[in-house]
Recover the amino acids of this structure.
DNA sequence: GTATGGATCCTT
DNA sequence: AGGATCCATACG
C-alpha cells in the first residue's frame, strides 16, 4: 500500500531519505505501470543547505513546489537535458526533498528498457531513473497519493545502508561533505 | 535584455 | 577525459 501522509510530513529529510531505501517507486504514465526498488537517495535539507535549490529561502517558479507539504514530486531539468525526480518532504513552507538516484527494476521492465532505448544501466543514476519511469518536468508537483506516481512499502529490508557525501555538489562548500547520500552497502543485485 | 553554469549521461 | 545541450537563474 501507498506510504502515508505522515511518512512524508515528518520534519527530517535525512531520516526519510534513508527510510526510502527499500521502498518501491511506481509510475503509471501513458497507461504503462513501471516500478523499482529504491536503492540510492540523497537528502536536500532546506534553506540552510547550500546544495539545496531552496538555500537561503530562494523561492522561484522552479523551487515553489519544495515549499509544499511533503508528499508531492519535484521534477526539474539538469544540465539542460536530464529530468531529475525528487520527493518533497516535511511540513508546508519547509523546503526539503529527496533525490531518487537509483532503482532496482521490478515491474514493467520491458517498458523501461524501451524508454531507455536498451541503454545500460537501466535505472542507475538520477537521469536514467526518470527516463525509465517516463518522468519529465510535466510531472512536477504531482501528489504521491494519486495514481500517476507513488511509493509503496513492500517490507523489503536491507542489512546495511551506507551514508556518504552527495554527488556533484562540490560548489556547496562544507555542505558538500555532509553524509546525506544513502545507498546499499553490498551488492544485492 | 544578456550571461552563466549546472543534484548528468554517454562516447571516446 | 570531454562533449552534449538548454533551461533557470542572476544580474544590469
Amino acid at each position: 500500500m501507498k506510504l502515508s501522509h505522515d511518512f512524508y510530513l515528518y520534519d527530517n529529510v535525512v531520516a526519510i531519505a534513508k527510510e526510502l531505501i527499500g521502498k518501491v517507486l511506481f509510475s503509471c504514465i501513458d497507461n504503462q505501470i513501471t516500478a523499482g526498488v529504491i536503492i540510492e537517495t540523497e537528502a536536500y535539507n532546506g534553506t540552510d543547505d547550500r546544495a539545496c535549490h531552496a538555500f537561503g529561502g530562494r523561492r522561484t517558479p522552479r523551487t515553489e513546489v519544495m515549499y509544499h507539504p511533503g508528499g508531492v514530486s519535484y521534477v526539474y531539468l539538469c544540465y539542460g537535458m536530464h529530468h531529475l525526480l525528487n520527493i518533497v518532504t516535511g511540513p508546508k513552507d519547509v523546503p526539503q526533498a529527496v533525490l531518487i538516484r537509483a532503482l532496482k527494476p521490478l515491474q514493467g521492465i520491458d517498458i523501461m528498457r524501451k524508454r531507455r532505448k536498451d541503454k545500460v544501466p537501466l535505472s542507475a543514476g538520477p537521469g536514467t531513473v526518470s527516463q525509465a519511469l517516463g518522468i519529465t518536468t510535466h510531472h512536477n508537483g504531482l501528489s504521491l497519493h494519486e495514481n500517476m506516481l507513488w511509493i509503496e512499502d513492500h517490507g523489503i529490508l536491507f542489512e546495511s545502508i551506507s551514508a556518504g557525501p552527495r554527488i556533484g555538489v562540490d560548489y556547496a562548500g562544507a555542505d558538500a561533505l555532509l553524509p546525506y547520500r544513502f545507498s546499499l552497502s553490498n551488492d544485492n543485485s
Observations:
- Residues 76 and 83 of chain A are 6 Å apart (CA to CA).
- The longest strand of chain A covers residues 32-45.
- Chain A is about 15% helix and 30% strand.
